[in-house]
Specification:
The protein is an alpha+beta fold. The protein has one domain. 15% of the residues lie in helices and 34% in strands. It is built from 2 helices and 8 strands, in the order E-E-E-E-E-H-E-E-H-E.
Length: 150
């Protein structure tokens, strides 16, 4: 359905009483690949699309030098960087979330991250330990957004 598709996503605020309203914060997310889901709709960005992020990540170079950095996966500082793996993953979750209390804002029915497992003569991909570390970081909420939720 598309390659390098841009979507605008917005977040909501929740106060101490549980009232949810639009926070006024919009973020852009460029999805590598948008696939058609299992429904028959052809509308791009409809809830029947699947967002796919494709990564090719080095774990080691020259078979000894570790290039994986936990900091590459650290929680996104919403008031700071425009790019991080955490930002991408978090906004993919936002696009996959149905915010019925505001309006039907769900933009995808699913999202997937495809990470190439490669091995060249001098470069190795991520190990299971690398993936575990990355997953632990991705579970955290971004920083710098007071009461912002997906």
């Amino acid at each position: 359905m598309g390659v390098e598709v841009t979507r605008n996503l917005r977040l909501v605020d929740e106060d101490e009483l549980g009232t949810i309203e639009f926070s006024g914060k919009n973020f852009q997310r460029r999805i590598d690949i948008v696939l058609k889901g299992s429904s028959s709709t052809d509308l791009p960005g409809s809830p029947n699309t699947i967002w796919v992020e494709v990564k090719s990540l080095k774990g080691k170079e020259n078979r000894t030098r570790e290039v994986f950095k936990k900091s590459n996966w650290a929680p996104w500082a919403m008031n700071g960087s425009k790019y991080s793996y955490h930002r991408q993953f978090y906004l993919d979750r936002v696009g996959n979330t149905d915010i019925n209390t505001i309006e039907d804002y769900k933009q995808s029915s699913d999202f997937e991250w495809w990470i190439q497992k490669f091995r060249k003569r001098t470069v190795e991909g991520y190990t299971e330990e690398h993936f575990d570390t990355a997953a632990t970081e991705l579970e955290k909420l971004p920083t710098g957004g007071v009461n912002l939720h997906i």
